[in-house]
Amino acid sequence: MRTTRYGTPLPRARSEATVLIVEPTLGYRSDQPASDLALGASPAMENFVPRDGGLEPRPALSQHTATSNPMGVLVTGGKEVQSSLGTRYNLISGTTRFAWYSASSYSPLSYVSSGGYTAVPSIGTTERVDITQIYEATNDEMLAVMSATSSYQTLFTWEVGATTFSSLTQAPRARWVAAFDNFLVAANVRAPSTESKFIQRVQWSDRGNPFNWTTGISGFQDLLDAQGGVTRVMAQESRVVLFFENEIWVQFRDAFPNTFRFQVLDRSVGTPYGMTCTETPKGICFLARDFMVYLLPKEGGPAVKIGQAVFRKIKDTVDEPGYAWGVYDPTTATYQLYYPTGAGTGLPQRAMWLNMETGAWAPQRFDQLDGARNLTIGWNGLLATGAAGQTWSDVSGVYTWANVPGTWGSYGPTNVYGQQVVYTGSSNGTVWYLNSNGTNDDGTGVTCKWRSSALGADDPAHTKLVNGFRLDYDADTASTVSVAVSRDQGETFDSAFTLGLAQAENQSTAQGYPYTGARYPVFEVQSNDRFFRLLRFWLAIRSGGR
User: Fold this and answer.
1) What is the dihedral of CA 389, 392, 395, 397, to 10 degrees?
2) What secondary structure letter does DSSP report for 171?
3) How far apart are alpha carbons 99 and 110 in whole angstroms?
4) How far, CA to CA in Å, does 543 sit from each of 20, 108, 280, 514, 520?
5) How far is Cα 86 from Cα 101, in angstroms, rounded to an integer?
6) Is 313 helix (H, G, I), strand (E, B) or coil?
7) Tens digit of pLDDT for each residue in 202-243?
8) Long-range Cβ contact pairs of 277-281 (< 8 A, separation 24 or more)
9) Rg, Å, the chain Cα set
10) How far apart are CA 248 and CA 233, in angstroms?
């Protein structure tokens, strides 16, 4: 090697071989370029959930029972409510009536007048129904109380297990309701006898009597120092949280002669999108006016940002954010934010799921059926199934009264409850649930994708050759995954190769051999199968030559 006036240059190897290990657990990020992302983060993914150290396909949508469409109209609200004996029921609302699930089917409820009230529901398709439940001592039963979120209708009440519902007498017409310390709290109200609106008013019933709003320790407070109207009221631990469009207040029990005291918690942030406010084990998550996701910690203190990783994606794609809503899924430990997009129908078809344990975000889409699937509202509960029961005509050809086995009561309708699931209503009235054992979204296949960050960004001067790929996985059933490598950071991909995943209860490995050269190679995995978990990717890479 010739020595120059500048010294002797260091010899350089013609190629360097390395193995890059990628564990895909950091979730989706839109806040940084792909070349700046950490290994394990993704600039583009959908329908995967990062949890338990790997990637899993999200649960699929399944219809809840054969009578999953009891009203044939848009589902405006839903909640699992419990009787005083512990029996659970799904209560859902449409635009003009409500329905409940019991013994394998949904049945519409009939409206009956109460205390002179004959205001049947007339809920617009542009609003939603807020539902809470509270104990009522006179009948020793739980009541579900429902409020329309924008039209100031009378509060409706359903005695759990009954076949009728009615208006809640004496109560104000309110947009938002919550049960707290056996008070029924209503906020953003209109007076029962006038058309006056009190958008900053918080009003509560007598303690232990949701039908009494005028005597005892019932009362109200006008929060005149607050800016705008109340957009959600939620009980959280030992306080009630009052969301306004641009600020947050809290309500506490107080000593005699007061019932409650109120104070400002955070004047810097609030939310106009009340249905996105969702209770999780770490606090209340919500979407703010600027499309940032916040967490109001249950330990106290102001709201903190938790949506930096997805803020850009939501901001660029969200449309009609007033229809956005949230729900917490205990099974996957995720806060799930559903929202419409500009290319959709104006109703939620996309979602962002946040793993509350790891902070990993995961985009989901439910519009692969020609954009026709709209998820209007969601709630969680135990998966309810059951049998409708027998009639005498069903068994009279087999038994007589003298020899019928068991008791007649044993032939009645039954309910069976399984694992926790997320229920969701739709624009055409169908009730679905997220089914971890489902194979498709109610007949539509689900495509799951995960894309790597741009690899080799620490050495931009040299081309990298990807010539080996290995996948560690678990699989409950035999599955396939396709893998493709890109030369231009995801604009185009070389021909994909398919890896067959044999059934494996414990970790197994599949291998493939791409041959792609790029300055910043990117790979993408894709599958339409359901029951597997991707744990780790191994890439064999040569840098600087052959």
Assistant:
1) -160
2) P
3) 9
4) 12, 67, 46, 15, 11
5) 15
6) helix
7) 999 999 999 999 999 999 999 999 989 999 999 999 999 999
8) 277/232, 277/234, 277/243, 277/326, 278/326, 278/327, 278/328, 278/335, 279/234, 279/236, 279/328, 280/328, 280/335, 280/356, 281/333, 281/356
9) 28
10) 10
Tell me the C-alpha distance between 502 and 449, whole Å. Answer: 20
Q: Is 410 helix (H, G, I), strand (E, B) or coil?
A: helix
The two tokens of residue 411 are: 């032939």
Contact 23, 39 (CB under 8 A): yes
Residue owning tokens 């793993």: 355
Quick one: 83 exposed, middle or buried, by C-beta within 10 A (0-12, 13-18, 19+)? middle
Residue from 286, 375, 377, 280 nearest 329 by CA: 280
How does 69-81 read in b/e, with b if 16+ C-beta sit within 10 Å?
A: bbbebbbbbbbbb
Could you report the per-residue pLDDT of 36-78, keeping only the tens digit for each?
999 999 999 999 999 999 999 999 999 998 677 777 899 999 9
Please tell me the distance from the alpha carbon of residue 449 to that of residue 29, in angstroms, as a whole number.
Answer: 14
Considering only CA atoms, which of 251, 228, 433 is closest in space to residue 329? 433
Residue 492, helix vs strand vs coil: coil
CB 383 within 8 A of CB 330: no
Can you give the pTM of this predicted structure?
A: 0.91
